[in-house]
Amino acid sequence: MISKKAIALCATVGVALTGFAIATPANAEPVSNSYVAVGSDTLEDVVSTLANGSALSGSPLRSTAAGGTTIGSFDATGTAYITTKPNGVRFGRPNGSGDGRTALLRSIDGAAYTSGTVGAPAAVVITGQVDIARSSGSGTVDTAGSLIQVPFGRDAIAYAYDSGSTATGIDTISTATMTSLYTCSVTTLGGVTVTPVIPQAGSGTRKDFMSKIGVTDATLGSCVTVGQEHDASALGINTVMPMSVSRWVAMNTGASFPKLKATTVLGSLVAGTTPVTGTGTAMLPNQTYYNDSLWGRDTYLVVQYARVDPTNASYDAKLAALLDPTKATSLTNSQTTPTKTGALKKKFGILAPSTTTAVRISK
């Protein structure tokens, strides 16, 4: 754990509130004139919308650094290369939570960075090019770690499948059965072959899902195929894939681009509890499902510890304020009154995290 001062991220500079019209996540990715966020696919749309500005929650909201400088949030997928800052180097796009944290570490320590994105270059020095890593799960806790993860919001994991599937019980798969499917010790349900899909290496959802079902890279079965996390646009019949509930909500309400088919549905991993309530634009995350000790999860924004520690010479008051949950329009605010960014995050299926305590990590 960190000091009370750092937990509070007690910056002296506030976060500006600027009103903007409804904005969808940007396809074009201009360089940032302040801070750059990369990493998790789960959080890419909600963080991009906070950075770009939106009135989706009923009141114009935007998270900016003090002085009105804007944040650049880069998607996990897209072109193989990105350039994040003026006159900066072109480097491989970080795809997923782990890849984002690695890019942040290389931005700090000056060692060469290699992205997991296909077609990206190897060994590029990216010093100072990344400031924030989006992370859908916890990094490696280390009280002396050079990074710190600040709780962003609460999410949960369920799974997606096609409503035309014929496998018996595919709509209510237990944790134990999911383990069997992903180790390939069971390959059918009711005599019908089921194909399990796992997100790409470096994905936080992949790491969380495998941990929750007790599967490792060594025990992951050969029947499992790999796909981009949260992209159910080509999900076949009798196929299952982990799905962030927050991403599902956002894709159904119109807050995010819908990477799914009209026949894609969400299955529950918590007996007797549905991951969401309502349908279409009225869909909401189910707090009971999010509270589940196994399938609920906190998500984080990760930064260099020294930059948010008021006792350190590298302390950056603007960055600290941007991550201070007490600030009305900070990235980490979870209050849902119309003038606070927590209201906008809820439109993306993100609820208040289970804790506001920031924790140091090593990677």
UniProtKB/TrEMBL annotation:
Q: Where is the signal peptide?
A: 1-28
| Protein name (database record) | PBP domain-containing protein
Q: Determine if Signal is one of this entry's keywords.
A: yes
Organism of derivation: Cryobacterium zhongshanensis
Its keywords, alphabetically, are: Signal
Q: Tell me the domain of life.
A: Bacteria
